[in-house]
Specification:
Blueprint: E1 2-3, E2 9-10, E3 28-29, E4 32-33, H1 41-44, E5 52-59, E6 62-66, H2 69-77, H3 79-82, H4 91-95, E7 103-110, E8 113-117, H5 120-128, H6 130-144
Antiparallel strand pairs: 1-2, 3-4, 5-6, 7-8
């Protein structure tokens, strides 16, 4: 409490809430998620679209870029709907027990969730049994997310 003179006492303080993301949990390149691709466009356009560096939003310490203000608005309203799974690291790599970088054009949407893969070859393997790899990745993610990030 701080005394304001004749006005009386006022509470002044800062509430710090813990973030849901720990260091290394989101795949970033210079602070930018998904190598600068628009996370919403995967869902609305069905393809990987470069985001505009002038249209951004920050969520859980990561900066996301968007191709349009409309995509940005959709993300800001419901980031969990558009964020890639496993912090944006390769879903197949996570299933195999390690972090791996991604090719933003090697993606799959399953059950309304975005999964990214290391490259087109890994993506082809992932697509052979996506549910199986997703189950393995979900089981591995608590341990994998604590690993050091892979070299770019």
């Amino acid at each position: 409490m701080t005394w304001l003179g004749r006005g009386g006492w006022v509470a002044i303080g800062i509430l710090l809430a813990p973030s849901t993301v720990w260091a290394g949990e989101v795949n970033l390149a210079d602070g930018v998620a998904i190598s600068g691709y628009d996370p919403v466009a995967y869902f609305t356009s069905g393809k990987a679209v470069h985001g505009d560096p002038a249209i951004t939003a920050t969520h859980d310490g990561a900066t996301y870029r968007f191709a349009s203000g409309a995509d940005r608005a959709l993300f800001v309203a419901d980031p969990a709907r558009y964020e890639p799974q496993f912090g944006g690291f390769c879903a197949f790599g996570t299933a195999e027990g390690h972090k791996a970088t991604i090719d933003p054009e090697a993606f799959t949407i399953i059950g309304g969730k975005l999964y990214l893969n290391y490259n087109q070859d890994v993506w082809a393997t992932f697509k052979q049994d996506p549910q199986g790899y997703i189950r393995k990745a979900e089981a591995n993610w608590p341990t994998v997310r604590e690993q050091p990030d892979p070299a770019p």
